UniProtKB/TrEMBL annotation:
The active site is at residues 54, 57, 119. Residues 1-19 form the signal peptide. It comes from Devosia subaequoris. GO terms for biological process: cell wall organization; peptidoglycan biosynthetic process; proteolysis; regulation of cell shape. SUPFAM superfamilies: beta-lactamase/transpeptidase-like (SSF56601), Penicillin-binding protein associated domain (SSF69189). This is serine-type D-Ala-D-Ala carboxypeptidase. The lineage of its organism: Bacteria, Pseudomonadati, Pseudomonadota, Alphaproteobacteria, Hyphomicrobiales. Pathway: Cell wall biogenesis; peptidoglycan biosynthesis. Belongs to the peptidase S11 family. Its EC number is 3.4.16.4. InterPro entries: Beta-lactam/transpept-like, Peniciliin-bd_prot_C_sf, Peptidase_S11, Peptidase_S11_C, Peptidase_S11_C_sf, Peptidase_S11_N. Substrate binds at residue 221. SMART domains: PBP5_C. GO terms for molecular function: serine-type D-Ala-D-Ala carboxypeptidase activity. Removes C-terminal D-alanyl residues from sugar-peptide cell wall precursors.
Length: 380
């Protein structure tokens, strides 16, 4: 099997590159992603390994929500606060905590709210132990789900985000993780915008201070360690467009808040929506070897939308990738290929492409002719 790449558009990216050049951030790592299309409209060291700190708790929440959806856990279940959770994540640890009492039992919903609002380390460990029996087993679940989501540059070793040389992620993966949570679990997303939470007589404000700034931010998570600095994954829904921003490697909470705010504000104002392919419009054709038809049209799942600098209509360079030879039968709706869009030689968006119609097996003459073509291509 070999990879066949079809170039369908190669035009100037000067407009998009110029727009990015007009913005910069103090963050060492940054990504700004359009939620609907997955387009990355700003990136800085987007694929470099970083220490996720408490932003790793987003992966913890993804596992918890999946367990709830599967019916293996309920929001009303109560989990036991072990001595390990109490010592490692409680007040004595010096980190963020919900101040859970040793040997108490806490509802899953309250633990989830604590992880989101208070960044409770103890709450994260209690959830991990309650679901998987131990942090290490829960970490296996985190990595399994990360693979299913498509987080290719992440590896998790604990549910808290405590420093570990073996744990890493990237700004792009954290943005994709935020996008996954918003898309897959809208029924739980309201927790991220709660302004505060009280537990054990102690009230704590949402650690994502942008939630209270009135600029439309309604999630997701902050993080900090001495080595990694300050970071956040934030999202805003302004008008008909949602953006997800990741900044990391900053020197203070104030700097983190300001850089995230600037990035989201710039993204909301500097770009306009561009739809190169309407719903059902054929993007490219894939050859079908030995099929009753020599090729099959490829379409997106709905329209394919991009965001470009305001006043610009430059097309992006892109490839359509699929493994050949593509053999019949091909069924309508089969995922056949992937559209990859580039900006300045950097991948900014990948979208699956599907067969627009079914293609059955051709007659003997067709199969023989295509076999000869494939043999000739192999010689080339």
């Amino acid at each position: 099997m070999r990879l066949l790449i079809a170039i369908f558009a190669v035009l100037s990216l000067a407009g998009a590159a110029l727009a990015q050049a007009e913005f910069d951030t103090k963050a060492k790592f940054a990504v700004l992603m359009d939620y609907e299309s997955g387009t990355v409209i700003f990136q800085k060291n987007a694929d470099a390994a970083l220490e996720p700190a408490s932003m790793a708790k987003l992966m913890t929440l993804a596992v918890v929500f999946n367990e709830i959806r599967a019916g293996r856990v309920s929001l009303d279940d109560e989990f036991f606060v072990s001595e390990h959770a109490w010592r490692t994540g409680g007040a004595a640890s010096g980190g963020s905590t919900m101040f859970a009492e040793l040997n108490s039992q806490i509802r899953v919903e309250d633990l989830v709210r604590s992880v989101i609002i208070q960044s409770g380390n103890d709450a994260s460990i209690v959830l991990a132990e309650g679901i998987a029996g131990s942090e290490s087993t829960f970490a296996l679940m985190m990595n399994e789900l990360a693979g299913e989501i498509g987080l290719e540059q992440s590896y998790f070793t604990n549910p808290v985000g405590l420093p570990d040389p073996d744990m890493y992620s990237s700004a792009r993966d954290l943005a994709e993780l935020g996008r996954y949570l918003i898309r897959e679990f809208p029924e739980y997303y309201h927790y991220f915008s709660e302004p505060s939470m009280e537990w054990n007589g102690i009230n704590q404000a949402n650690r994502n201070s942008l939630v209270e700034m009135g600029i439309g931010v309604d999630g997701l998570k902050t993080g900090h360690t001495e080595a990694a600095g300050y970071g956040s994954v934030t999202s805003t829904d302004r008008g008909d467009r949602r953006l997800i921003a990741v900044v990391h490697g900053l020197t203070s909470m104030r700097e983190r808040t300001e850089e995230a705010r600037k990035l989201l504000t710039w993204g909301a104002r500097a770009f306009e929506r561009f739809t190169p392919y309407a719903e059902g419009q054929i993007v490219a054709y894939a050859d079908v070897y030995g099929g009753v038809s020599p090729n099959v049209g490829l379409v997106g799942q709905g329209e394919i939308a991009l965001y470009l600098p305001r006043g610009s209509r430059q097309c992006l360079s892109a490839t359509v990738n699929y493994e050949a030879p593509l053999l019949p039968p091909v069924r309508q709706g089969d995922r056949i290929a992937e559209l990859r869009v580039f900006c300045n030689d950097q991948l900014v968006q990948a979208a699956p492409l599907y067969a627009v119609e079914s293609v059955g097996q051709g007659d003997l003459i067709r199969r023989a002719t295509d076999a000869l073509k494939q043999l000739a291509l192999g010689w080339l």
